[in-house]
Amino acid sequence: MVRTMCKLVVRCGLVVLALAAALAAHGQSSTASQQPGLVITAQSASSAILGSNFSFSLVATGGAAPYSWRLVDGQLPPGLKLRAHAGAISGVPATAGEYRFTVAVADSSAPPLQAQRAMTITVIAGLTIDWKQSPKVQGTTLSGSVVVTNQTGQDFDLTVVVVAVNSSGRATTLGYQHFTLAAEKSGLVIPFGSSPGPGSYVVHADAVAHHPSGHHIYRARKQSSAPLSITQD
User: What is the pLDDT of residue 51?
Assistant: First the structure.
């Protein structure tokens, strides 16, 4: 009788343990099934200005925080870095252009959930100069005009110099302007013209600017595609 009761107690204990294990497994399965997937929700494209501070937040939802980020393909603009634990891309871009790359994020689950997303950062020059009227010779005069643009959100202290350089390296100033160019101002036309004398000339137009409160120097240059000749009357 005693032996039979002992066997019954042991069997009951085993059943209880089995039920507890089953319930625990079910609880873990339910928790895992309720865990939302990891998704990168940050926008896929952004723009930056050459020489200006830039910060872009990498945002994800789902999974278990904290997250860890890394670059898995492509390259960031020179001057920018990915902050793995802060979830940000920041720095001062040093080269204009369009940069395509892929970032990956992992959460704190075991094993970790992961997600990837392709992104693009376009770095614009900040200051541009182009021909409005290409340089040309009219009699003994070499003239034309340039257009300058401030692509930044701050006013520029701007200097524009246009020179004609002959075959021996002598430079003659065709135009000079120094003024404040308003933030995000485009299409400002600057004419130039002079009579540098007989010879063959290449025209250089240079724009140099800076923000009064900043240290970065913006530069832009345009050059005539072919020499221009002025002959003696």
Answer: 84
Q: Report helix, strand or coil for 226.
A: coil
Residue with tokens 């100033």: 173
**What is the pLDDT of the chain when averaged over all its residues?**
87
**Per this entry, what is the length of the chain?**
233
Q: Other C-beta atoms within 10 Å of 122: how many?
A: 15
- What would the pLDDT profile of 144-174 be if each residue is shown by its tens digit? 999 999 998 889 999 999 999 999 999 999 9
How far apart are the C-alpha atoms of 69 and 89, rounded to whole Å? 10
CA distance 7 to 14: 11
The CATH number of the domain covering residues in 39-124: 2.60.40.10
Please check whether the domain covering 127-230 is classified as CATH 2.60.40.10: yes
